[in-house]
Amino acid sequence: MKYNYTNSKLMFLPILLIVFSFLGCAGDLVCRHHALELASYGVEKNMETRISIYKINDLAWDSHAQAQVKVDGKWKWMTDWFGYVSIEDDPTFKPTGYMLFLTIPEYLEVLKKGSYSTTTGNTQ
Q1: Could you tell me the pTM of the whole model?
Q2: What distance in Å separates the CA atoms of residue 107 and residue 37, rounded to the nearest whole number?
């Protein structure tokens, strides 16, 4: 009796992709903590730093927090991938509504409240 290994390997491919994506994200912080971590890198490099909270369309979340640094007079978005920090022109997610820009102390006050406040901070 012959067994078709090609079909059985293809069947496990989607399962492996799902498992790897969960394992890749397993050690990640939620964005509210991750934004603060990346902002600390900007401060360490003596860069003007802030954290943005912005509205997104997503099934799991309604907003996202992301650190920004000022480079050559323009605000850039900070991201990282497996520990490598990069500076990008665009945010991770497409903003679909409000955008708040907070200093780190303002952002810490928002975290103390237990949820994102959409009525404080500078909007642009």
Answers
A1: 0.69
A2: 12
